[in-house]
Amino acid sequence: MGNQAVSLIGAPTDIGAGHRGASMGPEALRVANLQARLKARGIDVVDRGNLQGPLNPWEPPREGYRHLSAVVDWNRAVYEAIYGELSLGRLPVMLGGDHCLAIGSITAVARHCREHHKKLRVLWLDAHADFNTAQITPSGNIHGMPVACLCGMGPEELTTLGGSKPATAPDVFRQIGIRSVDEGEKRLVREARVSIFDMRQIDESGMKRVMEEALEGVDADTHLHVSFDVDFLDPAIAPGVGTTVRGGPNYREAQLCMEMIADTGRLASLDIVELNPAFDKRNQTAKLAVDLVESLFGKSTLIR
């Protein structure tokens, strides 16, 4: 995988989150040497710096959404930047920011796939299903809504970001590590038939079997997008997130997950989101995230 060209794009905002601090995520990943560690793997890595967008006004929700117009502005910036990198034949890595930004990145990826007749597969590594809507959201925080928005359920400004609605069908998603789903959300993900591998399934089948199923059908015509919410990881090893949920994958399970994705050779775009240095201890969560991203780009113990 040494001939890859990777572009890092910072999106420093916590506009969709319920806690402040994810806006500092991109810098924490840089401090943990993401660029240098990938370069050491023989990858051509360019850091494009940070996108610009509105400051977080920290207001209550209106009509079921918090900060909708600012969320739209940030996602439009992400959409254009990610689409631009894909058009250059580069692999974009969006450094979040909160998970609402995946609306922009995956909408761009989906457009790229349509234009190049590629199948899209999205691995959504997360403690949460992120399938809330204005009608059922407990908080109005849009970082709990990106998958629903991408599937066409949400405000027009977000569901039509790429010109056509929906950006993706629910069947492109494989959600892994899920262990917190709001009551209303449970019905929605069931009706949409989103493929969810929750922690019970990981416990019963093991990470290896789960990843084999999640990656089934990925081939040379597949664009594999990984949306890596750092709260996917157990908070015992990754305290630096705003929405911790106990009982996530441990270090070894997470490494296996990343290595099996790398083994496909199909990784073509990546989000790293919800890293919140304000809750972290000595940047340990950022260092762990960088460690796992190295594995995603093919670092393994032995030559296999």
Automatic annotation (TrEMBL):
UniProt signal peptide: none
The record's free-text note on cofactor binding: Binds 2 manganese ions per subunit.
Protein name, as recorded: Arginase
Top EC category: hydrolase
Keyword tRNA-binding: no
Residue sites binding Mn(2+) 2 per the record: 126
EC numbers on record: 3.5.3.1
CDD domains: Arginase
Annotated InterPro entries: Arginase, Ureohydrolase, Ureohydrolase_dom_sf, Ureohydrolase_Mn_BS
SUPFAM superfamilies xrefs: Arginase/deacetylase (SSF52768)
Cofactor(s) of this protein: Mn(2+)
UniProt record similarity statement: Belongs to the arginase family.
Alphabetical GO biological process terms: arginine metabolic process; urea cycle
Pathway: Nitrogen metabolism; urea cycle; L-ornithine and urea from L-arginine: step 1/1
GO molecular function: arginase activity; manganese ion binding
UniProt keyword terms in alphabetical order: Arginine metabolism, Hydrolase, Manganese, Metal-binding
One Pfam family linked to the record: Arginase
Transmembrane spans: none
Binding locations of Mn(2+) 1: 99, 128, 130, 229, 231
Catalytic activity: L-arginine + H2O = urea + L-ornithine
Cellular component terms per the entry's GO annotation: cytoplasm
